[in-house]
């Protein structure tokens, strides 16, 4: 996981045990679990709840290995925290200027179209194929659709550092509505936009992050 997600990994470690190590070359953390009891706990937590097409095959192998009956995935609704967990891993929230207007996009990328279609079925949006990366991407663009997903995240909070940008969404919409980015540079309104941009960009660790060998 990203360097900014040590907190999320420590939550997993506290519940299941295991170890967290820094991968210096890729600037990321790796979580590993080796002991049997922890693996059995994971299987019981995921069995019947996992929806990811690739992970389902992996869970099936683990169930067979430990002689545990494999459960079919439950039918998903918006009253399920699964979407938040999947977004923590494969989701993105960002904005870019298009014709002098900040367009916010919430997206999920995955190699399998079926894993993006789950999001589209519940939250609407569009799915596109990126031939350059050989991935499918589910996107939300409209204000109304984003508000629905924002409400979902309030009910099922994210665990990764991506939650920081969701905390800033109300401020983003407020400043965008008054077009704060078009005000004179010396105005307080424009300075409020600059402060927002700083908060938005500081959601991850700075480049001069001091690396550690292990945790």
UniProtKB/TrEMBL annotation:
Q: Which GO terms describe its molecular function?
A: endonuclease activity
Q: What is this protein called?
A: Putative LAGLIDADG homing endonuclease
Give the matching SUPFAM superfamilies. Answer: Homing endonucleases (SSF55608)
What organism does the UniProt record list as the source?
Sykidion marinum
Q: Where is the Homing endonuclease LAGLIDADG domain?
A: 84-171
List UniProt keywords, sorted A-Z: Chloroplast, Endonuclease, Hydrolase, Nuclease, Plastid
Keyword Hydrolase found = yes
């Amino acid at each position: 996981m990203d360097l900014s997600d040590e907190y999320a990994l420590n939550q997993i470690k506290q519940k299941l045990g295991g170890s967290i190590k820094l991968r210096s070359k890729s600037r990321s953390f790796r979580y590993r679990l080796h002991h049997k009891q922890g693996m059995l706990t994971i299987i019981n937590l995921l069995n019947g709840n996992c929806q990811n097409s690739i992970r389902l095959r992996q869970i099936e192998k683990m169930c067979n290995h430990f002689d545990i009956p494999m459960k079919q995935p439950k039918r998903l609704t918006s009253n399920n925290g699964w979407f938040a967990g999947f977004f923590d891993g494969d989701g993105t929230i960002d904005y870019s200027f298009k014709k002098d207007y900040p367009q916010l996009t919430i997206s999920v990328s995955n190699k399998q179209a079926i894993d993006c279609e789950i999001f589209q079925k519940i939250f609407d949006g569009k799915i596109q194929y990126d031939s350059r990366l050989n991935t499918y991407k589910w996107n939300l663009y409209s204000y109304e659709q984003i508000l629905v997903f924002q409400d979902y995240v309030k009910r099922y909070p994210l665990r990764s550092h991506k939650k920081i940008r969701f905390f800033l969404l109300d401020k983003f919409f407020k400043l965008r509505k008054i077009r704060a980015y078009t005000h004179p540079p010396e105005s307080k309104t424009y300075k409020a936009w600059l402060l927002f941009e700083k908060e938005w960009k500081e959601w991850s660790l700075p480049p001069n992050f001091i690396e550690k060998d292990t945790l």
